């Protein structure tokens, strides 16, 4: 393998407020290698890559591409030099088609957009790298996995030779991850340099050649993936002390009274299509109901309906005995129904508002936050300080816009707000997306604790390990329906679950029922 | 070949934060640059720039008369700016303060014409209400279209400005024209009971208190109150507003109503306090200048009052320049334009940082 060094970053320092997000970081990338970046939430991974792709300028330090020093004034410069990034929250224009998204921001600007030529190139690239998508379909119709393929294709389309993938797998199903890795391996053989960011060590070992660990903005070390163990990496990431294993609920209290009961509910998505089609479920005290399934099968709409954010067109929803079919989101919060949405920046937070204002978001209308006509910001600030402390949220301050926080810390903020008080029901979508190992364990413990304290939890996830670890009951969602449930699920059920996720019901109910 | 493209010496970067001190520097620097470039322009036209600036200052701020004139202009500017500032807080682009201002003036004139009584209290109170309602509904209509069918409010509010101004002309050239005005398009002068008091034999009128009270109320309600928080959330992220159970659609209509009502009230103050009769020339674009003022003041109600005063001085100073130095109106407008240009240019530096780097090869 050629040892050509594609990128050489030296002494990179970047300071925000008084936080050194990157502190004298050295990082290099060779042709034909996958270089993984590891580190806790807020360690500075995204910042370093944002510098490499021209989004931020470093305060100090230099970047060399194949031995020549470069200065990027904008992402455009970086793209022109063959650096492509797929962000943690990748952004495509939903109303445009795949090929239009590609043509957008193309380095070689033509006045006439060439549809046929563009589509032909996309087809060629997607065949070559196994990234199948239809160039003519509009982006909003695509699943997250497909959108990500589009985002990668877009970079190839712009002739990237260096590809940065910022937590690409956190939103993918295991099958999709597998596919992505095949693509990555193929690109590697062709001499691409690939930076891979992930919190999942298993994946890091599977795909990468070298690993650089960041801690609080500094490089702890760069190692060959073959020479290092998971324990060693974990220790490098968090310092001594290591990661506590989570104590999975041994105490199995028997499930209690039903709290949230959905009867045959039907819900439409934003496009007016039926997304949840006659789902019945019961959330009980002291129980975690897991829902597996490929994303886009109506899980999001189901969660929103249960949280009072989406109109229930048919069927009934009860909170114990109260009919809450058409209750508002606010009523549901007041009843103690907490909701952790999948889309943290789009729904769960107001990115331009500060930490305190985001802490107040779901409680401001009641005392102690509300005092008559006003909001008692002193109280909110006090609470925020407490949440930051107890959830270990890394932020420059309470009055800082939350868009400044790292992805994982944003997620922690949502969790802190939703899980902090008066919870009867928790509806959690992908609660550990983008969290580091420690925070993931912490959140899982929190969910288990919520259950122990009598809470009813609905856990929607694509991470089967997580579902098996936490759920007392597991249901699979496919095309808006539940394909039956499994009690006390464990690894022996994986095959059955896989079949159900593909729409093949194994026990009479759900699935192939006639449409009325 | 140098693969690293050009070595750049200038870096433009988005700022993540800015300190109060930096902000002050930027504003001072833009004012100084504006004055310098204006000086250059005046010099090229053969005018002594320092004399001209002296004139502007003298006309607007040096004596009681100047200050009073400046204050008289501050009133409508401040109220229209408070109006649009409220809408901007919710990221609703009310470009229609001008039309709402005109509707307010029309409504109170109609009230004087058709429901006249001797009691000043009754008259002024009813005019206040009528004008606010007129401006309010003029704005709320655009708000309703946005809330119900997602019609772009920039377009509707702008179009409704033209409708309001045409309505104004229809009445002053038509049935409301004063028969004794020798054919000039104006209504009869308002009777005594329909006038807001003016102070110290100047044109500063009680509308000043309207502006101050509205600013205070907005500061309390929007900056400190629960509702203000709600509209900021709705404006910044409507999906998060749903998540928090905030009724954004209803708030859009309400915000547009209140915004229009403040502008309408400004129209009433301008009629009852200053002109005391309706004539087409009273709407000179305060509603548009208000957009700039609100923006420069970062939507803060008290800052809006100060920035409005500054703009009032700019306008009065410009008038004085026309009179005292016989400069054509267009010159004055170019000068004002330059000042604006640099102030808005300074905005760029509030959100971007430019640094020069000198590197040895
Ligand atoms: N634009 C910004 N303004 C201010 N602070 C920032 C900004 N971007 C990042 N930071 C801070 O820099 C630190 C590093 O953030 P970064 O996003 O690089 O972390 P990360 O390693 O990608 O974490 P995660 O795993 O959570 O995504 C964090 O403390 C964050 O708050
Ligand atoms: Mg990150």
TrEMBL record, chain A:
Membrane topology: Peripheral membrane protein
PROSITE patterns: ABC_TRANSPORTER_1 (PS00211), ABC_TRANSPORTER_2 (PS50893)
InterPro entries: AAA+_ATPase, ABC_carbohydrate_import_ATPase, ABC_transporter-like_ATP-bd, ABC_transporter-like_CS, P-loop_NTPase
Domain ABC transporter: from-to ranges: 7-241, 260-504
Species annotation: Acetomicrobium hydrogeniformans
Compartment(s): Cell membrane
Name of the protein described by the UniProt record: ABC transporter ATP-binding protein
UniProt KW Repeat keyword: yes
Pfam families registered for this protein in UniProt: ABC_tran (PF00005)
GO molecular function (one): ATP hydrolysis activity
One cellular component term from this protein's GO annotations in UniProt: plasma membrane
Keywords of this entry: ATP-binding, Cell membrane, Membrane, Nucleotide-binding, Repeat, Translocase, Transport
TrEMBL record, chain B:
Protein's name in the database: ABC transporter permease
Native organism: Acetomicrobium hydrogeniformans
Main location group: membrane
Entries under CDD domains matching the protein: TM_PBP1_transp_TpRbsC_like (cd06580)
One GO MF term: transmembrane transporter activity
Membrane-spanning residues: 24-46, 74-93, 100-116, 122-145, 157-176, 196-222, 252-272, 278-297, 304-325, 331-352
Protein's membrane topology: Multi-pass membrane protein
GO cellular component, as recorded: plasma membrane
Cited InterPro entries: ABC_transp_permease
Cell location: Cell membrane
Taxonomy, superkingdom: Bacteria
Keyword Cell membrane: yes
């Amino acid at each position: 393998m050629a040892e050509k060094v594609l990128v050489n970053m030296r002494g990179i320092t970047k300071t925000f407020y008084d936080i050194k997000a990157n502190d004298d970081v050295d990082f290099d990338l060779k042709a034909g290698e996958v270089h993984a970046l590891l580190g806790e939430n807020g360690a500075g991974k995204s910042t370093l890559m944002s510098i490499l792709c021209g989004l931020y300028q470093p305060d100090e330090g230099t970047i060399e591409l194949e031995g020549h020093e470069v200065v990027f004034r904008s992402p455009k410069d970086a793209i022109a030099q063959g650096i492509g990034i797929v962000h943690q929250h990748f952004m495509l224009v939903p109303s445009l088609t795949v090929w239009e998204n590609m043509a957008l921001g193309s380095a070689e600007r033509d006045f006439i957009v060439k549809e046929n030529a563009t589509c032909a190139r996309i087809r060629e690239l997607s065949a070559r790298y196994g990234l199948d998508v239809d160039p003519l379909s509009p982006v909003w119709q695509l699943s997250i996995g497909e959108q990500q393929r589009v985002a990668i294709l877009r970079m190839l389309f712009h002739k990237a030779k260096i590809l940065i993938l910022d937590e690409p797998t956190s939103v993918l199903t295991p099958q999709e991850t597998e596919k992505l890795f095949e693509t990555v391996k193929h690109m590697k053989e062709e001499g691409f340099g690939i930076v891979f960011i992930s919190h999942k060590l298993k994946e890091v070992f599977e795909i990468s050649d070298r690993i650089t660990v960041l801690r609080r903005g500094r490089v702890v070390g760069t190692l060959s993936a073959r020479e290092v163990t998971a324990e060693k990496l974990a220790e490098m990431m968090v310092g001594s002390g290591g990661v506590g294993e989570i104590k999975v609920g041994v105490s199995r209290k028997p499930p209690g009274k039903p709290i949230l009961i959905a009867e045959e509910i039907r819900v439409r998505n934003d496009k007016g299509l039926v997304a949840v089609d006659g789902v019945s479920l019961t959330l009980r005290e002291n129980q975690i109901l897991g829902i597996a399934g490929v994303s886009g099968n109506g899980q999001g709409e189901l969660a929103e309906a249960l949280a009072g954010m989406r109109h229930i067109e048919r069927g009934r929803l009860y909170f114990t005995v109260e009919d809450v079919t058409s209750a508002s989101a606010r009523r549901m919060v007041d009843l103690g129904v907490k909701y952790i949405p999948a889309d943290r920046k789009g729904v769960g937070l107001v990115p331009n508002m500060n930490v305190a204002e985001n802490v107040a978001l779901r409680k401001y209308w009641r005392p102690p936050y509300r005092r008559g006509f006003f909001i008692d910001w002193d109280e909110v600030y006090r609470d925020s300080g407490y949440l930051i402390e107890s959830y270990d949220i890394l932020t420059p301050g309470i009055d800082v816009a939350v868009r400044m926080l790292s992805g994982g810390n944003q997620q922690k903020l949502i969790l802190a707000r939703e899980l902090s008080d008066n919870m009867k029901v928790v509806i959690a979508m992908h609660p550990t997306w983008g969290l580091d190992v420690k925070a993931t364990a912490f959140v899982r413990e929190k969910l288990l604790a919520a259950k122990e304290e009598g809470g009813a939890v609905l856990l929607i996830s694509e991470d089967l390990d997580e579902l098996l670890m936490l759920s007392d009951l597991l249901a699979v969602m496919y095309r808006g329906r539940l394909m039956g449930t499994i009690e006390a699920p464990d690894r022996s059920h994986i095959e059955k679950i896989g079949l159900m996720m593909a729409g093949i019901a194994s026990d009479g109910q759900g699935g192939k029922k006639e449409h009325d | 070949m140098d693969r690293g493209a050009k070595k750049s010496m200038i870096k433009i970067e988005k700022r993540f934060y800015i300190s109060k001190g930096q902000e002050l520097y930027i504003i001072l620097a833009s004012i100084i640059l504006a004055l310098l470039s204006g000086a250059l322009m005046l010099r090229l036209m053969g005018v002594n720039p320092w004399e001209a600036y002296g004139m502007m200052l003298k006309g607007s701020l040096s004596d009681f008369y100047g200050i009073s004139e400046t204050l008289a202009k501050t009133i409508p500017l401040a109220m229209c700016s408070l109006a649009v500032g409220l809408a901007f807080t919710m990221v609703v682009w009310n470009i229609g303060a001008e039309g709402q201002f005109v509707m307010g003036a029309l409504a109170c004139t109609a009230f004087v014409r058709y429901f006249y009584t001797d009691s000043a209290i009754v008259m002024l109170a009813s005019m206040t209400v009528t004008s606010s309602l007129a401006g309010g509904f003029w704005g709320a209509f655009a708000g309703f279209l946005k809330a119900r069918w997602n019609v772009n409010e920039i377009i509707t509010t702008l179009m409704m400005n033209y409708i309001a101004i045409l309505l104004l002309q229809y009445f002053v050239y038509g049935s409301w024209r004063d028969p004794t005005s020798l054919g000039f398009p104006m209504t009869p002068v308002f009777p005594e009971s329909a006038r807001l008091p003016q102070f110290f034999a100047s044109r500063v009128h009680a509308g000043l208190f309207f502006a101050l009270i509205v600013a205070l109320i907005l500061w309390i309600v929007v900056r400190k109150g629960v509702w203000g928080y709600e509209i900021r959330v709705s404006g910044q992220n409507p999906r998060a507003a749903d998540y928090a159970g905030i009724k954004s659609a209803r708030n859009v209509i309400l915000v547009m109503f209140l915004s229009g009502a403040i502008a309408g009230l400004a129209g009433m103050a301008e009629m009852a306090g200053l002109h005391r009769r309706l004539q087409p020339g009273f709407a000179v674009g305060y509603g548009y200048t208000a957009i700039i003022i609100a923006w420069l003041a970062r939507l803060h109600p008290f800052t809006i009052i100060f920035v409005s005063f500054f703009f009032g001085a700019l306008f009065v100073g410009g008038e004085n320049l026309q009179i005292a130095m016989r400069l054509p109106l267009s010159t004055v407008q170019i000068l004002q334009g330059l000042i604006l240009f640099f102030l808005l240019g300074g905005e760029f530096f509030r959100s971007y940082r430019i640094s020069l780097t000198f590197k040895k090869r």
